[in-house]
Amino acid sequence: MEAAMGLMRRMPPKHIDTALSALLSLLPQHSSDLLSQVDQPLQVLCDAEYGKEFILCEYNRDADSYRSPWSNVYHPPLEDGSLPSAELRQLEIEANDIFAVYRDQYYEGGISSVYMWEDDNEGFVGCFLIKKDGSKTGQGRRGYLQEGAWDAIHVVEVGPEEEGTTNYRLTSTVMLSLTTDNESSGTFSLSGSIRRQMNMRLSVQEGHLCNMGKMIEEMESKLRNSLDQVYFGKTKEMVCTLRPPAEVVMRLPDS
């Protein structure tokens, strides 16, 4: 199991589904652990009742059905699917509305979904998801990419309240993949994923959504900077070393 998880952490996002299917065939006894611990590229389904798309993931799945955050109904229908409590469902509705505004401001489009459920420690867990298709045929407004996808998964574990404060544990994963295919840059493909964690103990005076939102905003800023420095910065450095621009190539003087 440890070797399988190590392999999946190094797998490019566009190959995760294929690799995970192969591991499930090789390790059927660990299927539940693999499905719960391996972050897969996010998929989307439309809630026909509300006419809105929602994101599919392990956190809104029950058997082979997925719960919509808009209607609170499983697709395909599932009679005994788990549902959040009335209080937590109201918080989930508010979180989806607020997170949609955040998504539009930072991502200029895309799809977002928020799911919440009770845990075993008298607290609850919130999962905040964003999927942005940056390809020419998708939501890429600038048209630079032949293919492009940004999948962000933020899971916030909220502990029980103690003396007006609560412990928040945020685990964030971002999966990025992009491909260009044009005359100026040629064919170029880059993909990878990054995961980080953050723990904070905060006052609940301003509310859980405010606290979780601040943590996610701060974490996404750190993740974007890391991706820019690690993936794009190192790639640019390597390309410029192997193929220096013409203007910096020094000509040797004639002997």
From TrEMBL:
Protein origin, superkingdom: Eukaryota
Presence of keyword Transport: no
GO MF, one annotated term: actin filament binding
GO annotation, biological process: actin cytoskeleton organization; barbed-end actin filament capping; cell morphogenesis
InterPro entries in UniProt: CapZ_alpha/beta, CapZ_alpha/beta_2, CAPZB, CAPZB_N, F-actin_capping_bsu_CS
Keyword Transmembrane helix listed: no
GO cellular component: cytoplasm; F-actin capping protein complex
Subcellular location: Cytoplasm, Cytoskeleton
Role: F-actin-capping proteins bind in a Ca(2+)-independent manner to the fast growing ends of actin filaments (barbed end) thereby blocking the exchange of subunits at these ends. Unlike other capping proteins (such as gelsolin and severin), these proteins do not sever actin filaments.
Oligomer status and interactors: Heterodimer of an alpha and a beta subunit.
Identification of the protein by name: F-actin-capping protein subunit beta
Native species: Rosa chinensis (China rose)
